[in-house]
Design goal:
Order of helices and strands: EEEEEEEEEHEE
Radius of gyration: 13 Å
Helix content: under 10%
Largest sheet: 7 strands, mixed
Distance between the termini: 40 Å
Number of helices: 1
Shape: globular
Number of strands: 11
Low-confidence stretches: none
Strand content: over 45%
């Protein structure tokens, strides 16, 4: 049973930074795709960033590219999302996602293609 547990959300002023963590357990994730989505009130879930656990390629939504960085720590089985230069439009619940067979190049932005989801962590950016 795959478990994804997010942490690190909170309240931050515009221009500030936060680092989200996603602790993954229940599988060997070496071939998994890992990523982050977010959902703001009244909006659809939106792709943020993704990578393959064993690879070096990373993918970002245009709205966060250059500000957010996805990374992993193999020893801790943890995926991170470093978020810099935050603005109020980044306010959302952030979800960690994983999938064993997803094609990142084709399907990474489609929420329904990701099989495993964490419970989410709230990020609020004040102006």
């Amino acid at each position: 049973q795959v478990q994804l547990v997010e942490s690190g959300g909170g309240l931050v002023q515009a221009g500030g930074s936060l680092r989200l963590s996603c602790a993954a357990s229940g599988r060997t994730f070496s071939t998994y795709a890992m990523g982050w989505f977010r959902q703001a009130p009244g909006k659809e879930r939106e792709f943020v960033a993704a990578m393959r656990w064993s690879g070096s390629s990373t993918y970002y939504a245009a709205s966060v590219k250059g500000r957010f960085t996805i990374s992993r720590d193999n020893a801790k089985n943890t995926v991170y999302l470093q978020m810099n230069s935050l603005n109020p439009e980044d306010t959302a619940v952030y979800y960690c996602v994983a999938d064993s067979s997803l094609s990142l190049s084709r399907d990474r932005t489609i929420a329904s293609m990701w099989n495993y989801w964490g419970q989410g962590t709230q990020v609020t950016v004040s102006s």
